[in-house]
Amino acid sequence: MPTNLPPEYFEVEKRYREAKTPTEKIACLEELLTIVPKHKGTDKLRADLRRRVSKVKAASQTKKTLSKRESAFRIDKEGAAQVVVVGPANVGKSALLATLTNAAPEVADFPHTTWKPSPGMMPVENIQIQLIDTPPLSKEYVEPEFMDLIRRADLVLLMVDLQTDPLQQLDDSVSLLQEHGIVPLRLKDRYLDQRGLTFIPYLVLANKNDNADTDENFEIFHELLEDEWPVISASVTAGRNLELLKQTLVERLNIIRVYSKSPGKKPDLTSPFVLKKGSTVADFARKIHKDFVQNLKTAKVWGASVYDGQMVRRDYVLQDGDVVELQI
Q1: Pairing of strands 82-86, 155-161
Q2: Do residues 170 and 155 lie in contact, with contact meaning Cβ atoms separated by under 8 Å?
């Protein structure tokens, strides 16, 4: 069982989580091996670190030998969550990605500019959320791997054009996805007797609400919705409500940010661990390393729901922004 880990371990572990390339990851893991004390209590941890080095090296070699024909729809998840942006042609999906992320998809006023998915990372305060621009949803032809990409995502951001029959666009898009077994998570109770369905959180974005004159269009659209859809309006070109969109995505993803703290040191508030709402101190310990949770009994927590440094048990439910010092 790992004990007496020095503060440097957690600093290098944080760098490992932030590493983008296999070379960086391997360097961090090898540094961790030099930091972990050599005694019986750390045998499992050191063995796990060696396995992780081998795994990263093997994965790196596999990627180098992959065929060029590998599907463009196989996109690895990065950041705190993966959000797939879907909708009919010319609703502004590519423009949204170009505005909010580091990606540079082709943006044009004519439809069907995007023929393959394009990922980008969107910063939201001190976390990153992966957005994926996708080809238009169309009943004429549906790429099976496109549907698989949507099924793997953490959330569906369904975009409609507020100025071009958004209600029909929403109905057509939802129907097409449901034909392929992709259903909004909030409607799960309606499908209890059906198998083979994938339930994913949805957020509807009514784009092209460019100014006060189009606010009425959004009000009418909202009133005509038959179900209580989670929906917001924005304008990618005018920059309206884009910060609201970011915060709403975080809320819909149901995630919290938790920070680690080493004894006697200040916490690093620039690189949080991202957990699902309802996660406990034990879940946080498992996120850092699977062996930590086995010997964990208590932790110190700083946050809005506790006094500074309050001692809590492993089943304590964490809140967004909590700082945790594990007692291992």
Answers
A1: parallel
A2: no
The 10 Å Cβ neighbour count of residue 319 is: 16
By C-alpha distance, which of 18, 49, 27 is closest to 36?
A: 49
- How much is the pLDDT for 68? 46
Largest CA distance in the chain: 70
Q: Which CATH superfamily is domain 82-253 in?
A: P-loop containing nucleotide triphosphate hydrolases (3.40.50.300)
What would be the CATH architecture of the domain defined by 256-328?
Roll (3.10)
Mean pLDDT of the chain: 88
Tell me the sheet residues that pair with 300: 311, 325
3-state secondary structure at position 80: coil
Return residue ranges of the chain for CATH 3.40.50.300: 82-253
Q: Which pTM was predicted?
A: 0.76
**What average pLDDT does the segment 5-27 reach?**
82
**pLDDT greater than 50 at residue 120:** yes
